Amino acid sequence: MPAQHDQQTQVAVVLRTRNRPLLLARALASAAAQTYADYVVIVVNDTGDPGPVDDAVAQVADRALGRFQVVHNTVSRGREAALNIGLEASSSCYVAVLDDDDTWASSFLAQTVDHLERTGDLAVATRSEVIYERIDGETVVTEGRELLASDRNQVTLLETIVRNYTHTGSLVYRRDVLDTIGRYDEALPVLADWDFLLRLLRHGEVGFIDGNPLAFWHRRPASVGDARNSVEGDEHTRWDVLVRDRYLRADLARHEGLGYLLFVSELQDRDARIAQARGAHIAGAVHKIDTELLSMRDTQTSLAAAVHHLHGTQDELLRQLVEMNRNLISQNNRIVAQFALLGERVERLESLLDRRLAGQLR
After folding, report:
1. Alpha-carbon distance 57 to 35, whole Å?
2. Which Pfam families match (predicted)?
3. DSSP per residue over 255-270, as a string?
4. Residue 240 maps to a domain
5. How far is residue 362's CA from residue 354's CA, in Å, rounded to a whole number?
6. CA 43, CA 30: separation in Å to the nearest integer?
7. Model-level pTM?
8. Helices in the chain by DSSP H: which ranges?
9. For 152-210, what is each residue's pLDDT tens digit?
10. CATH number of residue 195's parent domain
11. What local confidence, expressed as pLDDT, does residue 218 receive?
């Protein structure tokens, strides 16, 4: 059993793991590097090989200063039960969750605790960055990075109902909210963090620390087995519908609002039909435009061919004109030469006539 911690501990960090020692070592180093000092880390090993977990914790022991405790589960009750076990094994004012493949900036706890101590928010989340990576032997290779939900700078119930844009590792909340909203739903194999956040937002505000990312969500789309992220499978899509369905049934049981829901669903279906009709109209218009553009391209091609033919004809005419001009010049030169010859003959005849006339006169 883990040791019981002082009630004055400010933050309890629950870190669940299972057979990922390479990634666990990185997460532990991230937790040990926090500039904030008043925290404990409860490592919940959910039926994984205990040796590598103990070795990974021992590697940061000199920096951990006794803050790291390990719980080895001999029987797994699921990922969300592991979180609840970590909560039961700790006591604190605030709670954070760091999965064994994720990391924090060194000021993560300092900034989130400062926010909670200055405000009345039930929880606070930070800007997060998604890091895409792959495991190559004993090396983790980064392949890309992007901000998570870069167009959002607050955490609201309105947006979270549609989709969860808040990474689990970016959230720190007050422990006493657990008395109101309950703990993580162990019946959910995935999306328990979304369900937990929905219940949290139902009862109060969740702050947001914008700016440089303080939480890092590491994803490995190509990985399989223990190294795989749960979000990479299709379970999230299936359980998204089931969670919504469960909440709907609960509301109906309390308020009998089926008529209102049927009315709303009819409006939604009507809007969908209108949108579909408009889409079909737009698609038809686009098809007509495409046909006209194709016809214009054919006409353009024909015109281009005609212009090319005209250019060829023009070149041929120019060649013929040049040849005709050359022939004319040659003929003109011959005519000039003939006129010169005739001129000489005329001059000789005139000379002969002059001589004969002169002889007759004598």
Report:
1. 19
2. Glycos_transf_2 (PF00535)
3. H--HHHHHHHHHHHHH
4. no
5. 13
6. 13
7. 0.71
8. 21-32, 50-59, 61-64, 79-88, 108-118, 157-162, 178-181, 192-203, 235-255, 258-361
9. 999 999 999 989 999 999 999 999 999 999 999 999 999 999 999 999 999 999 999 99
10. 3.90.550.10
11. 96
Q: Is residue 122 part of a domain?
A: yes
- Work out the number of other CB atoms within 10 angstroms of the CB of residue 226: 12
- CA-wise closest residue to 217 among 236, 231, 199: 231
Tokens of 7: 């009630």
Assigned domain for 241 exists: no
What residue numbers bound the domain in which 211 lies?
Answer: 11-234
Q: What is the DSSP string of 69-138?
A: EEEEESS---HHHHHHHHHHT---SEEEE--TT-EE-TTHHHHHHHHHHHS--SEEEE-EEEEEEEEETT
| Residues 68, 24 contacting (CB under 8 angstroms) | no
Transcribe 276-289 into DSSP letters.
HHHHHHHHHHHHHH
Tokens encoding 78: 């699921």
Domain count of the fold of the chain: 1
CB atoms within 10 A of CB 24: 25
Cα-based distances in Å from 198 to 147, 182, 193: 22, 12, 9
Domain for residue 55, yes or no?
A: yes
